[in-house]
Amino acid sequence: MQHRTIGDLMTRGVVRVRPDTPFKEVVGLLADHDVTALPVVDDLDQPLGVVSEADLLRTVVARPDPSGLPPSAGQPGGSVTEGKGNTAGELMTAPAVCARPEWTVVEAARLMDGEGVKRLPVTDEVGTLIGIVSRGDLLRVFLRRDEALRDEITRDVLTRTLGLAPTDVAVDVHEGRVSLKGRVETARLIPVIERLCRGVDGVVSVDTDLSHRVDDPSEARSPG
């Protein structure tokens, strides 16, 4: 099976800013390029952090409200962190949480979830920025057509990888949900089939209705 890598999904030609880029210029770049965040890079084009709309808005939240409302209005018992800074370097979230182009969707998704970030700058082997990948980019694998998923499971998983005959397992895919029905040689093969099918890019779920001929290969042998 050939998994889509972050290098396949990332956006190249990334708009980036330097630490000394002024607040207003950052806002303009976000608007001009219709993005919600920009990597902040050093002189070697290595990511230092990411400045997002949320980072910029923190400076607005901390300002006095023209109506006279206190900063914590609408948030009983809460507080608002004062936003300070006039440049990308002062406002960015740092350090940058980065991905590598050879990573799988699962690796990048786990890092995003663990770090609580919406996007990852992508760097090469020396740490230079080469792209950026967002949550939306990762979800693009689920736009694969059902026919493509069915063909990959039948051809790559069942036939090439597991050596099953085309008549052993029938594969049906609807909206990314895979249904498998048939009969295989041993019980221990069933969870392997499920795991491999779940690993196909774009599969949402796997439902199996598989029976087996014997519980273990040794049971098929005649008593000696």
* CATH fold-level name of the largest domain: CBS-domain
By DSSP, the count of extended strands is 7
Kindly provide the name of the CATH class of the largest domain: Alpha Beta
Structural class: alpha+beta
Low-confidence stretches: 73-82
Distance from first to last alpha carbon: 40 Å
CATH level-4 homologous superfamily of the largest domain: CBS-domain
What's the total helix number? 8
Q: Which whole number gives the mean pLDDT? A: 88
Number of domains: 2
Mind summarizing the main beta sheet?
3 strands, mixed
Give the strand order, joined by hyphens, for the main sheet: 5-6-7
Q: Helix share of residues?
A: 25-40%
CATH architecture title of the largest domain:
Roll
Beta content comes to: 15-25%
Write the layout of secondary structure elements.
Layout: H1 6-9, H2 23-32, E1 37-41, E2 47-52, H3 53-61, H4 88-91, H5 105-115, E3 119-123, E4 129-134, H6 135-139, H7 146-161, E5 169-174, E6 177-186, H8 189-198, E7 205-214
Parallel strand pairs: 6-7
Antiparallel strand pairs: 1-2, 3-4, 5-6
